[in-house]
Inverse folding.
């Protein structure tokens, strides 16, 4: 009779295999969600950098159109920052500098874009590109009629 009582006791709980399967599923879910969060954060940071660049170009164009200080205005892109400057036939005065976040580099087809006084027309068409950790992600074009366009790469 004692043998029957020992075997009739049922055990409740999970086996080691079941626990390991649940832990594995949770690890996959956490990995996918963290990866998605990092990707969306990077895209948001890239959008912010592009907005900074586009804003600097727009400011230079607007200052040239209003002939602020009686001069033309422009933007120069140098590796990790962008600078607004004013110019006349003999001098260039660098004014405001905006830094990009770490790891972002700016390059251009020319060294800078200049907007003529009053018309706000660019002297030449220019394309700025932004790259994060060596990978291009945004192109900002300034065309001859003065149109500023931003395009994801």
């Amino acid at each position: 009779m004692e043998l029957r009582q020992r075997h009739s006791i049922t055990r409740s709980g999970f086996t080691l295999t079941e626990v390991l399967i649940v832990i594995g599923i949770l690890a996959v879910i956490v990995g996918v969600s963290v990866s998605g969060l990092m990707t969306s954060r990077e895209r948001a940071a890239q959008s912010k950098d592009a907005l900074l660049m586009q804003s600097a170009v727009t400011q230079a164009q607007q200052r040239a159109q209003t002939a602020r200080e009686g001069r033309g205005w422009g933007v120069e892109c140098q590796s990790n920052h962008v600078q607004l400057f004013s110019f006349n036939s003999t001098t260039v005065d660098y004014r405001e500098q905006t830094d990009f976040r770490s790891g972002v580099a700016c390059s251009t087809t020319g060294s800078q874009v200049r907007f003529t006084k009053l018309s706000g027309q660019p002297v030449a068409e220019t394309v700025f590109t932004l790259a994060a950790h060596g990978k291009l992600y945004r192109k900002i074009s300034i065309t001859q009629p003065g149109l500023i366009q931003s395009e994801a790469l």
Notes: The chain has a mean pLDDT of 86.
